[in-house]
Amino acid sequence: MYRYDEFDHDFVKARVAEFTDQVDRRLAGEITEDQFRPLRLMNGVYLQLHAYMLRVAVPYGTLNSKQLRMLGHIARKYDKGYGHFTTRQNIQYNWPALSDVPAILADLASVEMHAIQTSGNCIRNVTADHFAGAAADEVADPRPYAEILRQWSSVHPEFSYLPRKFKIAVTGAERDRAAIQTHDIGLHLKKNEAGELGFAVYVGGGQGRTPLIAKKIRDFLPEEDLLSYCTAILRVYNLHGRRDNKYKARIKILVHETGTEEFARQVETEWAELKDSQLTLPEADIRAIEAYFAPPALTARPEGDEAIRLARLDSKSFSEWLDQNVTTHRHPDYAAVTISLKGIGEVPGDASDSQMEAVADLAEKYAFDEIRVSHEQNLILPHVARADLKAVYDALVEIELATANSGLISDIIACPGLDYCALANARSIIVAQNISKRFASLERQRDIGELKLKISGCINACGHHHVGHIGILGVEKKGAELYQVTLGGSGDENTSVGDIIGRGFGPEEITDAIETVVQTYLALRVDRSEKFLDAYRRVGPAPFKEALYGGEAKAA
Amino acid sequence: MKILTANRLTDGEAVWYSTDHSWAEIIDRAELAQDKAAEAALEAVGKAAYDDNLVVDVNLVDVEVIEGAIVPNRLRERIRASGPTNRNDLGKQARPQAA
User: Which 3-state string (H, E, C) describes A407-446?
Assistant: First the structure.
């Protein structure tokens, strides 16, 4: 993985010193809250319902064991013994004192981490496929490009005060696991007919109150033009994006209102000025960054097949976990392991200090020191020898992180919602917990099959409800929580925004409503091979509406 | 009926302006404003505390008194006063004085 060079170390160290001084001056009353707020936000410090919240960047979701151990240490020393992994592959602490934040940032800097640009109207943490570098279906590892974008966008003077925040995602496979079409810029790393690397470029995707799917404005951008082309996009946005209305300030609105063709034309015009400038990436530089992400030396471990065969016979639960949480690796003797942070009835994305430390130990021992955070709020060990899977599983059972539910209905994405968040209108966590408990039986979950359920506690859609196969949006109506259900959303290479299915449900009703949706699907699917999303796309909303509201519609 | 609430600058702790003129970590003894004049007085207190860098995010919130206890109208404020509803080992509800 990427290692800080001297410049990076100095830069982060200088930022810690600068923010430490700003916190000191704020606590001494030398600067006002109005002056301080933008400074604290630039360093990832929010104010939520109960306390401050610190959002720490995990660039493209990649961590080593030392870093994850430090995240556990911070949870224990400065917070309340846990952290929350987010849909942006970051981690948030819910209870830090402002006066402790400088010490936390210094601890983070000691392991090459920081909280810079995790808030504010700038280019945020660049996200990537959590199986990057391991996936069998990958053209190339997308993370070197994410790292190049990170370096380019860090305190970029021209793009630090954009009309609104800006999110970039990169995937290196046809199967999109990074939801690139819901980002401001989505990059699909691919090869052209000549075998050269480049990107399909998507612009103007996003969720929030106006969900829009990104438009492809270029089918193949040579890799050396990555920065000049992104600069062109950002310039058009910076110039024409709306600054008068926060709700219309994202690039998705500009692309939508300008029209894709005209927007692409403006980008191309701008790019004509920038192409072949100093922004062109030298081949040597790309390869140098790439070298940081060189795959670990995966020695042959052919004994894995037999070991797994025997372990399967020995343990049904291991066998189920293997089928659900273990993904094919590009090396036949290895696998990528999804560590579910969605234990039945647990808080999606939360991990305790000791769990973080234990996962760090596992990564060090069995996974070449690498851990990933997925946007689905799970942790990944990307390179585990198949021969070691049983040992990893047994260790995960010990720390209660062996739930075999990856991709199933209880693998729920949920934002913190009204239990923590100052923007939320309704709770998300408790809804996720109740649904998880209702569908606790893994046998039943497997029978239902792949089903991505996503919950947001407000229209800002941090819980990605728009692209959930089943989405739940919490709103406040007449002082009470109400949950709107959307169906048919998807955040992959065939991205779709879910349809609002009808009137909302109260907190006591929403679990039953989800049960009804699932039962309806089970009754109408062609057979077990027809997944929920495929069935919904085949039949549309009508049977689900009938099942949810039919009786009352007839009575009315 | 309204009360005055904020978050303490140093640690973000949710606090309420209380009858003893302190910013308390619990809602129970919050000073109640029954009319516009009292609301204006509380607002002035809040502004002064904000200007003095004691608290941030100062707000008047609607409450009712139910069986002698102050209960905010909005769930948001009830959660601020007690803690996350999914974990009663966190927030005010986890502290001895709330028992």
Answer: CCCCCCEECCHHHCCCCCCCCCHHHHHHHHHHCCCHHHHH
